[in-house]
Amino acid sequence: MTVEIKQATAPEDLRDAYGLVHALAEHEGSLEYLKITEEAFVKKAMGDSPEIFAFTAKLDGDIVGVATGFRRLHIWNGTHLVELDDLYVVEAARGFGIGTKLLYAVGALGKAENVPVRWMVNEDNEGAIRLYEHIGAKVWIKGVCWWTPENIPG
After folding, report:
1. Which parts of the sequence belong to the N-acetyltransferase domain (predicted)?
2. Which of 12, 73, 74, 140 is deepest in the core (most CB within 10 A)?
């Protein structure tokens, strides 16, 4: 079994990454909230200053995992950080360490830039929390608030 992790920079790799983001949205029952198109995703991940990044995982040549994210300013630190947005491995490829390898790829990006990596996890996702703690991440359980424009008064 061969696992290959690489940063997606070519349009075809970014389309593969988008396909897995779409699969994640379907898996979570959140497809209605996935507003970015494949074309916009690819465009935002390319160029001299990409807005987003993506890593893909292949198992024996088949695309099976993705990690996406972006860089943002962390006000308290006064520095940038790497923000992991999506981490997804298709169900048939779970248990082979692919999620961990994707996390390490994102971690290497933060380490190379000498900035922390941040992400969120649902508090009931005990398996993920165990994994994150096992790799040395500090897990703080916080809720996520989401305020859409149509619900903001004024």
Report:
1. 3-154
2. 74
